[in-house]
Write a structure and sequence with these properties.
alpha+beta; 27 helices; Pdz3 Domain; NAD; ATP binding; 21% strand; Transferase(Phosphotransferase), domain 1; disordered N terminus; PDZ_sf; Phosphatase 2c, domain 1
């Protein structure tokens, strides 16, 4: 059968050369005939590729060579894989051959033809047909006999025929469907995974929906399943339905290969006919890539506009060519012959578009120079945001990304159409505007087109007329346009109609925009312009004004203009405003972004320019790429169909991090959370002293904020200004000082505090040199390196005794828990490790602990404070209470190698030192100090009992060290910030009312580690920090130390840190601390 009917020259078949009968051997005395096939150049079989790369989705190393054209976002490699596999199978089926052993090992990737080829027909059988659809079961199936055939049990259909002479086509259909699913869910690199998947399907009676229901009911959903479902969803569930039909247990219910050619949405009932006209006077410019030999039509894979299209409707991968002129076509060969033999200059091609997908999604053309196409993925989605001001309660905007350019100037429009009270006008404009724009650009007479401004006016005017003609009922809906990105080189034009805004981005400082401003006779709008640095516009009698937006040299500026909305002439019912075409002039590299208000609900002026600047730094400079990226970012930021309030959190400390970790993630909370902080991680502050001496490593006590699933966006930046009226936060990037603004609906202030130097002379100036704070990880790293450096210098042979005393003099300023814990860690480090490694330096080491108050650890009970002071003195730690450091003074001693420093004390004594750790107090950070809100005497933001900032109720909250509750101040402790965050998270997410129940702090007591297996625990105020206590006893010594370690180990967020911390504790105890300096 194989020798008589095998199509050895077909591109989807491995050429068959003949049959070889190997000579008998002692091991194999009765050898069987072997089929001989031509060797194919390439990476091997699908199985070989997947088991090497384990990238079933993309075949990254060989994708450009094994597929008909380079994969794009419009047609991912998985689509091509599926259609090529169906194409391979259609060949033997058309010849009456059933392969019966379709599996990755039998599909070869061919470099030369850029196709897949089907191999190994050793298990093939002839087609068995009974009454059209084959019914294999007249009796109970007898099962699979592995001794009689080599069919793979993983990929074989459930019926598994013993009959070696004939089989139905449905047998192969099951195999292809199952093989496709293994690639969708990224299982093909592992036989065990595929076998397990097969067993799961069998347990679900090969019902794909039942299998999925079981997966979704599982506690953990694997990433491969999530990715596969994302692929299916992106194709409108067509492949999901098709694959489900292909693997049905009953062979009679499986589709044929013809029906598998295109994933069909079963909910739709009809196709859409498309007629495209091509000129034949130039090179044809039409390439039809054969994708299937089914008899239902030619499957078009790519249309290349190398010739000149007269009226070219957009053709997408998946469209089926049905006619050339009046002649019906079924195969690729006939289609090509008919096209070549068409008379006249115009060739008319008819296509059918299968239902189940949006016709606007597909490969789009860049119209203009006709020299080629720019292909990128288009989107057709709604954007918008939720606010409590009534401006945007639902997603009414449509986003269409397409690239259009004219020969005279590169204008890229990626339109946003705003529906103003409804979406019907917006959707109409989105579906029609670009076709009208294209028709005008393609006018054979350039005089009919006019400049780009005129083209935009004409296109918009046509849309308005068409909308009014069909707008008898829904005539109150209006629409505005557009989202455009313009390279402002020379004078160019862009459509601006309705409530649109234009933003200029200029690295050269040269852009000038001329446009009509939005409500220029409104004094508030005038003030906005003046605040932005623009000249006060002069308004005409009709309320219109022209403004120029100059830029300062060498400074990035963002010029703002919105077109006229109220009072503008309405050219037709249902259209909000007249289309104005603004002009701008700039230098190469300048950009102008124009968009409707819906886009600016996602971006504001500055961060749109900031985003463009980042694209330029990433070498993305083409207009279509920038427009596509802007559209994608807008959609990614706020395109959720249930978009809720935008919650912005300042700070990633105990308050900010716990807001994010406690933020509700279920469907009942439509709010989105964004975080702004100069630190991209949360630090478990009680363990910072341990890292300063190497007991723990730095990364073991930090958690990156981006790992929190609730944080939709994180900005590593510092907040410079908060505008409560405009509800915006102005920041500057930490790396390049780029200024940008983030809008908010709800704002949580959790920016914390900074170390207070009390304006002590030279403390801030010497910070990072000899003086170190102890609040962040970089402080601890500096202390650790400085300590080792002092010992290494002191160990040098030419260092004098006096200088060794100075170098190894450690002063700790402050008597709180952080200072005492660091003093204890430092003592352990010195006595257990450094003195052992530097035995000759032990006599020079001194530790001095200075506290301006009457005792150490002021908030603790008196007996615990006494215990600590006695313990420190026993350890030869020089404790000085009631004394303050009045200045740090640099000085030079000729006997010292370099400049030295000394601390001047309030009792008149001077102490030379090598290292000072300053942890004496806290003060507000700059943004807190600058806020125009009520503050306490200590500069903390005053809130009510619901943590709301006074005067900003319902919009702004403050938690943690930067705030204090009016009438009920709380200590600046981590547990306070954590409990406030856990209380506030469901409130700002909208799950709880903001005044349901006031915040109540439950004190867990206070702890301090004293090193060497000792600690203290104050339980006298457990429950209520304002007087009620006695719920737990005070602890000291080893029991308290064990409680301290257990409590802080249990509070770690990630499993990794819960493993790392005890590991480092054991390492330090058993092998000593690391003294490497790097």
């Amino acid at each position: 059968m194989i020798s008589s009917s095998y199509p050895s020259s077909h591109p989807h078949i491995v050429p068959y050369l003949g049959t070889l009968l190997p000579p008998p051997t002692p091991a194999n005395p009765t050898s069987s005939p072997a089929l001989v096939f031509r060797k194919i150049s390439g990476p091997g079989t699908l199985s070989d590729v997947c088991k090497v790369s384990q990238l079933a989705y993309f075949f990254t190393p060989v994708s450009s060579k094994i597929m008909p054209f380079s994969p794009s976002a419009d047609c991912p490699v998985l689509d091509l894989f599926f259609t090529q596999l169906l194409s391979c199978l259609a060949v033997p089926h058309s010849l009456g051959i059933v392969h019966r052993d379709v599996k990755p090992e039998n599909v070869v990737l061919d470099y030369e033809t850029a196709t897949m080829r089907l191999l190994d027909y050793g298990s093939a059988a002839s087609l068995r047909q009974e009454g059209g659809r084959f019914n294999p079961f007249k009796k109970k199936p007898v099962g699979f006999n592995p001794e009689k055939t080599a069919i793979s049990p993983i990929f074989a259909a459930p019926e598994m025929f013993i009959d070696l002479s004939s089989s139905p086509l449905s047998f192969d259909v099951f195999s292809v469907g199952f093989l496709f699913l293994t690639y969708v869910f990224n299982l093909s690199h592992d036989d065990k995974l595929m076998s397990s998947f097969r067993q799961q399907l069998a347990a679900s009676n090969f019902d794909l929906n039942a299998w999925l229901a079981g997966q979704l009911a599982s506690t953990i959903l694997s990433k491969s399943v999530i990715d596969g479902l994302g692929y299916m969803k992106s194709h409108n569930a067509g492949p999901w339905k098709l694959a489900g039909r292909m693997i049905r247990e009953d062979p009679r219910k499986r589709p044929t290969i013809e029906e598998c050619a295109i994933p069909v949405d079963e909910a739709a009932s009809s196709t859409k006919s498309i007629i495209t006209h091509f000129r034949a006077s130039s090179p044809l410019g039409l390439i039809l890539e054969e994708d299937t030999l089914s008899y239902s039509g030619v499957f078009v894979k790519e249309v290349v506009a190398g010739g000149q299209a007269d009226r070219m409707k957009r053709i997408r991968p998946g469209d089926t060519l049905t006619r050339v002129g009046s002649q019906r076509v079924f195969t690729y060969e006939k289609a090509a012959a008919f096209i070549q033999n068409q008379p006249g200059n115009i060739i008319s091609l008819s296509f059918e578009r299968m239902p189940g997908s949006d016709p606007d999604l597909g490969v789009l053309d860049r119209v203009g120079d006709y020299g080629g196409q720019t292909k990128f993925r288009s989107t057709n989605q709604r954007i918008g945001s939720y606010t409590d001001k009534g401006r945007r309660q639902f997603n009414e905007d449509r986003v269409i990304r397409r690239a259009y350019g004219s020969p005279s100037s590169p204008v890229c429009i990626a339109g946003v159409f705003d529906g103003h009270g409804g979406a019907s006008a917006s959707e109409f404009a989105a579906a029609s505007f670009f076709d009208r724009l294209e028709d005008i650009y393609k006018s054979p007479d350039p005089k009919d087109r006019g400049d780009d401004g005129e083209v935009a006016r004409k296109a918009w005017g046509t849309i308005c007329e068409q909308w009014v003609d069909g707008c008898e009922v829904d005539d109150e809906d209006g629409t505005t346009a557009s989202l455009g990105v313009v390279n402002a080189s020379g004078e160019i034009f862009l459509l601006n109609c309705g409530d649109s805004r234009s933003v200029a981005y200029s690295p050269s400082g040269s852009v000038t925009i001329r446009t009509i401003d939005h409500k220029p006779d409104d004094e508030r709008e005038v003030e906005r312009l003046v605040r932005g640095g623009y000249e006060r516009p002069e308004c005409s009698a009709g309320g219109n004004a022209r403004i120029n937006v100059p830029f300062k040299n060498d400074v990035y500026q963002y010029g703002v203009s919105r077109s006229l909305e109220s009072g503008s002439p309405i050219i037709a019912a249902g259209i909000t405003s007249e289309a104005e075409v603004f002009s701008c002039r700039g230098a190469p590299g300048d950009f102008v972004i124009s968009a409707t208000d819906g886009f600016w609900d996602v971006f504001d002026n500055s961060n749109a320019g900031f985003f463009c600047s980042q694209l330029l730094k990433d070498k993305i400079k083409t207009l279509d790429e920038i427009a596509a990226a802007l559209g994608t970012e807008a959609i990614r930021g706020l395109t959720n169909q249930a978009a809720g309030p935008r919650v912005v959190v300042l700070g990633s400390g105990w308050g900010g991090f716990n807001i994010a970790s406690s933020f509700p993630m279920d469907s009942h909370s439509p709010a989105t959370l964004e975080m702004i902080s100069p630190s991209n991680h949360f630090v478990f502050t009680p363990l910072i002293p341990s890292t300063a001496v190497g007991t723990l490593e730095f990364r073991a006590i930090q958690e990156p904020v981006r790992t929190l699933p609730s944080v939709k966006q994180y900005y590593q930046a510092k907040c410079d200004q908060i505008d409560f009226d405009a509800q915006t936060v102005t920041c500057h990037g930490l790396w390049d000082n780029e200024i940008f603004t983030i809008p908010y609906d709800k704002l949580v202030l959790a920016q914390g505090v900074k170390t207070n130097t009390f304006n002590t002379p030279n403390v801030a100036e010497r910070e990072g040199i000899e003086v170190f704070f102890l609040k962040n990880l970089h402080h601890a790293r500096g202390i650790r390196n400085r300590t080792i450096e002092m010992f290494e210098i002191a160990a040098l042979p030419d260092t004098s005794h006096e200088e060794r005393k100075r170098l190894l003099s450690f002063i700790i300023v402050g008597g709180g828990p952080t200072s005492c814990e660091y003093a204890s860690e430092l003592h352990d480090f010195l006595t257990h490790d450094l003195i052992r490694l530097y035995p000759d330096l032990s006599e020079y080491v001194t530790i001095t602990l200075i506290e301006a108050g009457p005792s150490l650890l002021g908030p603790f009970e008196a007996d615990l404070r006494g215990y600590v002071e006695r313990l420190f003195r026993k350890r030869n730690i020089d404790v000085r209470t009631g004394i303050a450091v009045t200045a740090v003074e640099p000085f030079r001693d000729p006997t010292y190698k370099k400049e030295s420093t000394k601390a001047l004390l309030s009792d008149g004594e001077e102490i030379e030192f090598g290292t000072m750790v300053w942890s004496a107090g806290l003060e507000p950070v700059n943004i807190t100090a600058d806020l125009d809100v009520e503050k306490s005497a200590q500069g903390r933001i005053v809130t009510d009992k619901y943590l709301r900032v006074k005067g900003q109720e319902g919009k702004v909250w403050a938690i943690g060290d930067c705030s204090t509750i009016e009438g009920s101040p709380l200590p600046q402790l981590a547990q306070v910030a954590q409990q406030q965050a856990q209380y506030l998270a469901p409130v700002v997410a909208g799950e709880k009312g903001e005044s349901e129940k006031p915040f109540h702090f439950f004190s867990l007591g206070s702890m301090a580690s004293l090193g060497d297996g000792k600690a203290i625990y104050d339980g006298s105020h457990v429950g209520d920090p304002h007087g009620f206590g006695g719920m737990l006893p005070n602890l000291r010594g080893f029991a308290a130390w064990l409680a301290w370690r257990s409590a802080y180990w249990g509070k770690q967020v990630s499993t990794a840190n819960k493993l790392l911390i005890p590991m480092y504790w054991f390492k330090s105890w058993a092998f000593g601390r690391d003294i490497g300096r790097f």
